[in-house]
Please model this.
Amino acid sequence: MSDYVWTPTQEYVEKANVTRFGRRHGIDSIDGLRARSVADISWYWDAAVTDLGLVFDKPYSAVVDLSAGIAHPEWFIGGTLNIVDSCITRWINDPEVAGRDAIVHENEAGAIRRLTYRELNSEVERASAGLRDIGIGIGDAVGLFLPLIPEAAIAYYALARIGAVIVPLFSGFAPYAIASRIQDSGAKAVICADGTLRRGKKVEMRAHLHEALATCPSVENVIIVENLSPATDLRDDEVTWADLLASESDPGPIVHLDPSATLLLAYTSGTTGRPKGAVHTHAGFLTKTASEVAYSFDVSVGGVFCWVTDMGWIMGPLSITGSHSNGATLMLYEGALDVPDTTRLWQLVQRHGVTMLGVSPTLIRVIRASGSAVPDANDLSSVRVIGSTGEPWDPDSYEWLASKVFRALVPMINFSGGTEVGGSFLAPYPVEPIPSCSVGGPSLGMDVDIVDDKAQPVSGSTVGELVCRQPWPAMTRSVWQDDQRYMESYWSTFPGLWRHGDFAHRDPQGHWYISGRSDDVMNVAGKRLASAEVEEVLTSHADVAEAAAIGVPDAKKGEAVWAFWVARPGVTADASEELRAMVSDALGKSFAPSRVIRVPQLPKTMSGKIARRVVRAASLGTDPGDLSGIDNPESIPEIRRIVDTRG
Model:
């Protein structure tokens, strides 16, 4: 392990949002705040709503009702709201904020667009009027098949404003994946970009949607956003975004809804079977994302929030709702971050004064492995917080970013949660010491624990299953139209406990770490081994840019470890045998990989996560499942060929 630790200055602590919040309630330490927030979850969520000024049209009479059981809580009883009031309306009524940028967008070609809060509100009202004109109303599901462009946020709020259900779709989805989610949601309409550019190549989004709609009879209307060029040959069911906004109808009032009204369906990318639509509500998603962005990422009015993500992942909606509920500027980047080279990320920070920068470990490994120097040529002084989620860090990449790039002046808020959580289970806070690769501790309001196979709390640094003992507002209300699947997925392993599917452990000082997904854990001769443990050893080698470890069937051990690695630029030697010895020395001979294989690339999602299940399927020649979210599908036959060739 590394000895790097972020240590906040007293000045940093004094300025932090979470410090203000704690002192407002007589609490001076983050650990004290964590303890109070789960000792009385009603107190915490009510206090967060008040502190952040979140708007309820009709006040609630109680915070939570558990009479239907822990898996089916009701929140903010008796109140009514719409997220648009907290994210837009209150800011256009604030003269200090109304003229500030709500959105800044930059595409791969370098074109920049800006919208103030006042302009965003105007666009949202026009879009909601046009949507009402084509028959979209309360409870109607509408797909958003858009890259990270301003229209994504405008459409998001316009649909929320009229009480429709938002169905975000990953901009790189193939027709089958689009169709499966539209069919499951019963979407009545889809808002689709004609396309987007990635590494200079056009992604044909409209054409993919046309193919998908052949099996989606529920869709009555398609709205085409002319992102690349004017739309031609419109079908009978299509209208352009510009024509939709040209509506002369009155947008009508904001629809105020029950707190449990569905805001969006966030689909998880399962390996097989029908995708799961996690149901998020207006009140739940708003309160969780607003508090997360304010307290974990220390964003407020005047901040600039930028997360490298996509609308189809939960971080897309979280970025929109979380930044605007705090009066900040949302910086959207559309395209690949290695165009024209891997300094693009640092250029974005400098050009737009980013204060909260969200990245993935894989993205940073790629940038670091590219050979680019530490970006001294770019002014990164605006950054106050670095955010990260989705996969475990390796110490070398973590320290390169935290210590070399940002000179130990910025905390790394490495948080762990998921689509169904609506935010984080675990997160460090910028006011506390944060060791390398740590996820800190329980997020405020989250009563999480680590348990063994019998649901008993583990002691010391023992690895166990991550669970949550109490509900939280953004907990998915269910799987869309399939409550049995919801109960089986999250509540059936340990009755009364939410099982998240992550392995975690604590160090002797009480800092928490994610050991990887429990379905990424290998059982080698009766001993459990997380993929992340092997990968951490592999990526510590100077020749290794990134790595993936998988378990494969083995007659003697039950499972054997196979390791795959990608070399840094310019490396010609094959270090595979040396890497095998390193794993053996670090983890024990029984965990030494039976095969260590160098490959040109590893399959990754658009958000930069290595898809281990796809690596495993490619290695074994089995069905990899849904590949629509894979950014580089050409890596799969490459792995198959190399595995088969080497025997």
